[in-house]
Amino acid sequence: MDAEEIGVKDIDDRGMTTITTKKQKDLYNMITTSKKYKNCYLKHSYRAIKSKKNTVAYVILDGKPRILKWFAPGFTRQMETEYSTLKKGSSALNMPISYEKDSDNNVLLMNYVMGENLCDVINDEKTVFSENQRIMVLLAGWFARFHRSFKTADQFHIRGDSVLRNFILADCIWGVDFEESRVGKPVEDIAGMCSSILSTDPMFTSEKFQLCKTFIASYVESVKWNLENINEEVAYALLEKIQWRPEVEETLRNHAHKIRKHGLLR
Ligand SMILES: Nc1ncnc2c1ncn2[C@@H]1O[C@H](COP(=O)(O)OP(=O)(O)O)[C@@H](O)[C@H]1O
Ligand SMILES: [Mg+2]
């Protein structure tokens, strides 16, 4: 059967969700052929979930809304990292609870955080500047708590993959996607966030620089350690993005160069 011909019954009975991509077809096949997911329905909105490499779906499993994260083949280690990070962090921090690690299918099941993706909120022209500033303070608080809570006597643990897309705004900020969590320096997370804020559309506006300033200042105020070489780290994080976004290479290079030379907090 062609991918286009597969229809998935929506739990709300509001119509059929048509499967159009290979990822969606594979997910549909996995769910329908696995005994474990016989009571699992794909919600119509799952196509809206943008994900980089894994297949992430909003599903109803045994009558409950869940996020099903199906890791790409060869990403078992990332699944283990995400599962253990969620297990450690979710009771004290705003991170989803992972109910189950299904190693047979390479799937993590977690609770669904209802809210808006932070990347969409920050970059929506309808979001006023003062609201974005307020969000920066919340985001800095989230990072301060994460770093404090995962810190050991001799090392820090960072969330990794610090980009706007990996946060959800509800009544507070929630972090998702912890597969790249690792030992590292807090400045790597903070710089990653700044580079994401600056380089998502609209790119490098003066408002975006202001937001980074608020974010960094608020983080530094809430923690007992310093951020070393933040400008250098932001420049590096921007250059790293070139591999994913070659079409804006020149813009990224120019701004990385300026930030390295003159600093971010202009
Ligand atoms: N528990 C969750 N609740 C609500 N939305 C989620 C949840 N987990 C992930 N998402 C959404 O799905 C997207 C992709 O999930 P993510 O774990 O980031 O996958 P990837 O590793 O492929 O980037 C996220 O950017 C977020 O918008
Ligand atoms: Mg992600």
Task: Explain how this protein is built.
The chain has 266 residues and is α+β, with helices and mostly antiparallel strands. It has 2 domains: 3-111, Phosphorylase Kinase, domain 1, CATH 3.30.200; 116-262, Transferase(Phosphotransferase) domain 1 (Transferase(Phosphotransferase), domain 1). Helices cover 41% and strands 17% of the residues. The chain has 8 helices and 12 strands. It has helices at 22-33, 76-89, 118-123, 129-150, 186-199, 206-222, 230-240, 249-262, and strands at residues 7-9, 16-18, 40-42, 55-61, 64-70, 98-102, 107-111, 116-117, 157-158, 167-169, 173-175, 182-183. The strands form 4 sheets. The chain has a 5-stranded antiparallel beta sheet, sandwiched between helices. Strands 8-10-11 form a 3-stranded antiparallel beta sheet. A two-stranded antiparallel sheet has the order 1-2. A hairpin with a 6-residue loop joins strand 1 (7-9) and strand 2. Helix 4 packs parallel to helix 6, helix 5 packs antiparallel against helix 6 and helix 7 (230-240) runs antiparallel to helix 8 (249-262). The model is unreliable at 1-16 (pLDDT under 50). Adenosine-5'-diphosphate binds at residues 49, 51-54, 56, 67, 69, 96, 110, 112-113, 117, 165-166, 168, 176-177, 179.
